[in-house]
Amino acid sequence: DIQMTQSPSSLSAAVGDRVTITCRASQSISSYLNWYQQKPGKAPKVLIYASSSLKSGVPSRFSGSGSGTDFTLSISSLQPEDSAIYYCQQSYSVPWTFGQGTKVDIK
Amino acid sequence: YLVESGGGLVQPGGSLRLSCAASGFSFSNYEMNWVRQSPEKGLEWLAYISTGGTTTYYADSVKGRFSISRDNAQNSLYLQMSGLRAEDTALYYCVTDGEVVLATPGAFDIWGQGTMVTVSS
Question: Dihedral through CA B20, CA B14, CA B45, CA B43, nearest 10?
Fold first, then answer.
């Protein structure tokens, strides 16, 4: 199975800050990497798919990059509503696997 | 929209059948998945089924114990669970596969709100 490792596990940043979350795969997954946002009591929702494609309706302050084993999710200007847990997930091979999550808090 | 049902409290070794009712989209055109979430294991993909139901994939943790199926005429997805263990305690989500909308098989697009399964004596 492909292991997905996110860093950091949590972070706290101010409104307007640029935030970057890293995801590393245990083997190359090309660009088959997706990012999800989960708010308390809600189901996850996809933000970025295929490493860098923004899901329709998702604010443009979210962006993704990377290929192979190293990927990043960036929030260009953190907003209060971005407080959530963010997960990466590989769709390269079954079993599809998730990272452990990164909790983003607003200072 | 996706609405799961059928969760509840079950004893170890017991069985449960989860259902997922789909509406607002052409269900028969979408591959489907079950994903669960627990504090111990986080998000875990469990099972996939193709549009016609002929192809299925399972995580090793549930292979041989869980069975995914669908009824396109009823716009419904199912997860038959047997041999339940304490570690199967989780919130179970029905999720559309990303192939149709995102052109990305294995991505998880639309999620239901989940149904809770608790395995305990």
Answer: 100
Q: Pick out chain B residues at pLDDT < 50.
A: none
Taking one residue from A and the other from B, the number of pairs with CB-CB distance under 8 angstroms is: 63
Query: Contact B28/B38 with Cβ under 8 angstroms?
Result: no
Take residue A67 and report the two structure tokens written for it. 């290929």
State how far the Cα of B78 lies from the Cα of B71, in Å rounded to an integer.
8
Q: Is B97 on the interface with A (CB under 8 A)?
A: no
Q: Please answer yes or no on whether B42 and A101 come within 8 Å at the CB atom.
A: yes
Q: What is the pLDDT of residues A29-65, one digit of tens each?
A: 999 999 999 999 999 999 999 999 999 999 999 999 9
Q: Tell me what percent of the residues of chain A surpass a pLDDT of 90.
A: 100
